[in-house]
Amino acid sequence: MTRVAFIGLGNMGSGMAANQVKAGREVVAFDLSKEALARAAEQGMTGASSASEAVKDADIVVTMLPAGSHVSSVYMEAILPNARKDALLVDCSTIDVDSARTVARDASMQGFRAADAPVSGGTAAASGGTLTFMVGCREQDFAEFEQALKPMAKAVIHAGASGAGQAAKICNNMLLGISMIGVCEAFVLAERLGLDARKFFDIASNASGQCWSLTSYCPWPGPVPAAPSNRGYEGGFAAAMMLKDLKLAQDAAEMAGAPTPLGGAAEALFDEFVQRGGAARDFSGIIEMLRGKA
Ligand code: NAD
Q1: Among 38, 68, 71, 156, whose CB has the most other CB atoms within 10 angstroms?
Q2: Cα of 197 to ligand 1 centre, how many Å?
Q3: What integer pLDDT is reported at residue 235 of this predicted model?
Q4: What is the percent of the chain where pLDDT is above 90?
């Protein structure tokens, strides 16, 4: 039976690891949180007392941790010294490109196959096994990583070499942050001009303003029933997470010398929204700040 070590059983990791169990794999789980470990046991996983213990004898090691510093330390202190050399190492956290490349380089220098594989899709997709994975790894290793990720995925896409998965993720989320603010500003202007919001939606969604933030995740309540705007901006994709991704994009842009003025403006606006108490709200809730209501 394929043995998976899963480290980081938070909002995303717990559902993802449960899908590995459902696929008939043996999952040995570790998290610093006792509650997360208790939940993992209820879902059919074996709890480990440390990350080092979890990775021993694993065929696949998955990490789903908050940020680059957590991933680097778990790799250096637990995974690289204790995992089998033929284990597949895959980090699904959203982290900076630099840390992803450093971790992959260190792993490969010790003879491991490693991939960065951040995801698109929130907690519902994590539980439903319908995440999209953007994978950075060597071409010849991709097929095996694809099999490893399959129980948790709707799609697994090879983005390029190490770090390319993280690069794709932050470029996509920078675009999403900018487009959401653009859609919000258009609704606020339409409102001030006395244009009916529903009429504006019907026109823009059939005109050149059409985009995902408008037609699939409309920040104005009503036109898209499943969007968080109809639930008081609860759940969904937290503004704090969007801010984290926009910061990663700005850091990467500075490092690469890429001009991203709108990415910078989006970061500043989400920072303001978070400062004003919007951290846990869905990111489309920024429309309330732009309307002067937050
Ligand atoms: P989370 O904070 O809910 O979970 C992180 C887990 O890691 C926690 O349970 C924490 O206890 C554990 N952890 C931290 N350090 C650890 C260590 N050294 N050893 C073991 N466990 C440790 O975060 P999340 O929402 O599950 O997000 C995880 C990653 O996925 C982040 O990088 C995030 O940006 C990314 N992501 C999140 C979403 C989302 O909608 N939540 C969507 C896409 C990507």
Answers
A1: 71
A2: 37
A3: 82
A4: 97
Find out whether the beta carbon of 166 lies less than 6 Å from any atom of ligand 1. no
How is residue 120 annotated by DSSP?
E
Q: Which domains occur in the chain, in start order?
A: 3-161 (3.40.50.720), 167-290 (1.10.1040.10)
pLDDT in tens, 106-125: 999 999 999 999 999 888 89
pLDDT digits (tens, 9 = 90+) for 7-41: 999 989 999 999 999 999 999 999 999 999 999 99
- With a 6 Å cutoff on the Cβ, whether 102 touches ligand 1 is no
**89 strand-pairing partners:** 61, 114
Q: How many CB atoms lie within 10 A of CB 146?
A: 19
Indicate yes or no: pTM above 0.90: yes
